Prior knowledge:
Blueprint: E1 3-8, H1 9-13, H2 18-26, H3 29-40, H4 46-55, H5 62-70, H6 78-87, E2 90-99, H7 100-110, E3 114-118, E4 120-123, E5 126-131, H8 138-148, E6 156-160, H9 166-169, E7 174-178, H10 182-185, E8 190-192, H11 198-206
Helix pairs in contact: 2-3, 2-5, 3-4
Amino acid sequence: MKKLIFFDFDSTLVNNETIDELAKEAGVEKKVKEITKKAMNGEIDFKKALEERVKLLKDLPIEKVNKAIDRITLTEGAKETIEELKRRGYLVAVISGGFDIAVDKFKDKLNIDYAFSNTLIIKDNKLTGEVVENVIDKGEVVENLAKKLNIPLKNVIVVGDGANDISMFEKAGLRIAFCAKPILKEKADICIEKRDLREVLKVLEERDYDVKGDSKRD
């Protein structure tokens, strides 16, 4: 049977928050970080928070967008973890409330099977301060891809760090909070505090995790 694992992107698969890096280039870092913090802690609706932050990026030139993305770095152990999961037969997906302009770069770099994210609207080589409609709902994405691949949700593993990951945690068979906010830890089966994604492999090994989404020792 197929095995499927989803990784959140910002502050999980990579060390950065993409929108915060963009905000540095736009000179609105403090304002954007305040909104990001509230969204990740579940204090404000994520879609509303995203729209507010993207508005602050209006007229940011594409060359500055690319400069910001170049600062994004992979989390320790990310490359090795993805390679090992694929060797074990997992299908690997990355899912982000952020932007495809960053996510797709790392999808290709890591040979990830599926990527889902939002799209910034660009006009005349500048950001318009808007995103394409249909902002990502992570729970729906998990459910839809699992259905498409004919994989029961109990066989799906998710890894994330913030409040906007709750919807995908509610769908999955194994939920791993990675250096996460308290609100997400409450929804998790496993909490990893060491910032090294190879800890995910250790969790699967320790639980003797099989494709049915249960421990073989259960």
